[in-house]
Amino acid sequence: MIALLIAALIPLQPLPPVAVDSTRIVAVGPRVDPLSGTSSRLPAFLPPTSPPKTGIDDRWFGSDKPKHIIASGLLVISGQYLLEAKWRNPRRPSLVGSAATTLAIGIGKEIRDAGRPRNHFSLRDLTADLVGI
Prior knowledge:
It is elongated, with a radius of gyration of 19 Å. The protein starts with a helix and ends with a helix. The chain is mostly helical and about 130 residues long. The chain has four helices and four strands. Helix 2 packs antiparallel against helix 3 (about 90-115) and helix 2 crosses helix 4 (about 125-130). Strands 1-2 form a two-stranded antiparallel sheet.
């Protein structure tokens, strides 16, 4: 559900015109990435959240996705344990607070990744974080 809300916040842009030749389909005009506002010459059939052509491997089933899922799950469980068992908070607010804190940590990590060389902000990593939550 949260992933659908995040997807709804990303503005949709019309695809640029395409040219079809015998070997491939390519975009005729530049494509503007809605997250960064920069234009690129990516093929028209790639989604706007595709990472830039920098050699970064960000596949849906990449080796880092299970790490995101496990880390998020462990953060939620440990946060809920601290809030509920140690600090005597009610169960539902403890779970909501722990999940919200874990999501904020995941978003913060992706923002940090965006500013690092050979890295980028990844909605796929955030999706894996949401699966763990």
